[in-house]
Design goal:
About 40% of the residues lie in helices and about 20% in strands. The protein is of the alpha/beta class and about 500 residues long. It folds into 3 domains: about 1-45; about 45-240, 2-enoyl-CoA Hydratase, Chain A, domain 1, CATH 3.90.226; about 270-410 and about 445-475, Alpha-Beta Complex (2-enoyl-CoA Hydratase, Chain A, domain 1). The longest helix is centred in the N-terminal third of the chain and has 24 residues, at about 1-25.
């Protein structure tokens, strides 16, 4: 597959050079002879949007589509949406960009039509789509057609969801219905200091609501980059990690020893994920939303995986409404593209309080694990009390393999609460509470006890965690659900 794409990219480069040659030479095959050659050289001016979309692709591979489309009824003004395709990290990728240098990036039905054609080709080709958002809004004078244009954009994104990866790059203002459309993408990347993402303008609901920090804390963006270059690099990293489409498989690029021993003592959340990942490289998603859980993408043993990891330094890893939602979203996304999910558990349960949204959010998390058919591997690295053990990728919710480290504590209640609830009569002057709690942990809360019941498959040494995870991912690489297709069994002699 990769060799095929490299060959395709080479073709794109040759095509781009051929077009450039035709324009410079005023070649008749460019369209209509010398006259068109002059138009090509004078009218396709560089702009912020063109520079931005070109910089996303590998050098020399960007090919624009619909380059000379103008607004309907206007022979002078080019449409504010740029569309094209090329190679990103050697992978065929399609992209559109709202050009703020053309009518402020104002969106209209012509732009929607260009994006529709782009999506049609992307789905036929089975390649990812990147949307670059930077627009002042709709063309107000267009009325209902401008409003319908946003609906047509949303339909494109919705129809492609789960078919090809979609990444939104918020490079400037993304407001109103454009923000709704961007939220439908699989991953959204914002730029600190440059991006604005909101439904209602800050002038109405408060100036702090349009900023990147507010959007990130509310889960409106997946990743915040320091500058425009870092944002493009993040998009390119995501394209590199992800498969081309839902029938493709992510590239297996084993650049790190799968059996490499790791030191995981004292690590949790993103730090633990980085220690286990190939080369220590992870892409964190929704870092400022539901902070008790780390969610992100990385490679383990060359295979791209989604990681859900508890962070006990935040509220002892207690599951919140936000954390449950973002974990469910990652599991669902990974399942759409057959990416394995690795879950690392160190949580004392669910957050305290009376948030009515918590129960449905936890139900959403359970549903995501139950409904997913992709490979799922879980390891209890610390505490796993009550609902945290069940909801975070347990065997009962469909994990293919469940492991635990020797120091893990798996219990219906925290040992302190369990003793107070059922063993309080055992506490005395001769047998202090700490001794009784230790007895409870030894009898009912060890990973060995969970393994004896079949809820944990194995208890492993901490330094073997990466090796065991990579081995499990290799074993599950060909996982198929249901009864395998066959004509018949082999007849005995």
């Amino acid at each position: 597959m990769k060799r095929h794409l490299v060959a395709h990219v080479s073709m794109l480069i040759r095509l781009d050079k051929y077009i450039h040659f035709c324009r410079q030479a005023e070649c008749p095959t460019a369209g209509a002879g010398k006259g068109l050659g002059v138009i090509l050289n004078t009218e396709k001016q560089e702009s912020g949007g063109r520079t931005e979309i070109s910089a996303l692709f590998d050098a020399g591979t960007f090919v624009e589509l619909g380059a000379y489309v103008r607004r309907k009824g206007d022979r002078e003004t080019y449409d504010a949406v740029l569309c094209g395709y090329g190679a990103v990290e050697g992978k065929l990728t399609f992209a559109f960009a709202q050009d703020c240098d053309r009518l402020g990036g104002a969106f209209d039905e012509t732009g929607a039509e260009k994006i529709e054609k782009l999506y049609q080709q992307a789905i036929r080709s089975g390649a990812p789509v990147v949307g670059i958002f930077n627009s002042a809004g709709a063309v107000v004078f267009d009325g209902a057609p401008a409003l319908s244009a946003y609906g047509r954009l949303m339909k494109c994104v919705s129809d492609a969801s789960g078919v090809v990866p979609q990444i939104a790059l918020i490079s400037g203002v993304c407001a109103g219905m454009a923000a709704v459309a961007a939220s439908l993408f699989d991953v959204s990347v914002a730029v600190k200091g440059d991006s604005e993402l909101y439904i209602n303008p800050p002038s109405i609901v408060g100036k702090e609501t349009g900023g990147v920090a507010y959007a990130a804390a509310g889960g409106l963006v997946s990743l915040v980059a320091e500058d425009a270059g870092a944002a493009r690099a993040a998009v390119r990293s995501l394209i590199d990690l992800l498969p081309l489409n839902n029938r493709d498989t992510a590239d297996v690029d084993a650049t790190d020893d799968p059996g490499r021993p790791v030191t995981v003592t004292g690590l949790a959340g993103g730090e633990l994920a980085a220690a286990l990942a190939d080369g220590g490289r992870v892409v964190s998603l929704y870092a400022d939303y539901g902070k008790e859980l780390f969610t992100g993408l990385c490679r383990m043993g060359g295979r791209t995986v989604g990681v859900v990891a508890s962070d006990p330094t935040v509220s002892e890893g207690r599951l919140s409404t936000a954390g449950a939602k973002k974990a469910a979203r990652l599991v669902s996304f990974c399942d759409s593209f057959s990416l394995p999910v690795v879950t690392l558990v160190d949580s004392v349960g669910v957050e305290d309080g009376a948030d009515p949204a918590l129960a449905p959010a936890l139900g959403r998390l359970a549903t995501a694990y139950l409904a997913s058919t992709t490979a799922k591997v879980t390891c209890v690295t610390g505490k796993a009390y009550g609902a945290a053990f069940t909801l975070l990728g347990s065997r009962a919710l469909g994990a293919d393999l469940a492991l635990a480290l020797p120091e893990a504590v798996i219990s219906v209640l925290p040992p302190e609460s369990a003793v107070a609830f059922v063993w309080n009569d055992k506490v005395s002057t001769d047998t202090p509470r700490e001794t009784v709690e230790a007895q409870w942990r030894e009898l009912y809360a060890t990973p060995r006890a969970a393994a004896e019941s079949g809820d944990i498959d194995d208890v492993i040494a901490p330094e073997e965690l990466r090796a065991r995870l990579c081995a499990a991912l290799y074993m599950l690489a060909g996982k198929a659900d249901g009864t395998p297709d066959r004509k018949h069994g082999t007849m005995p002699l």
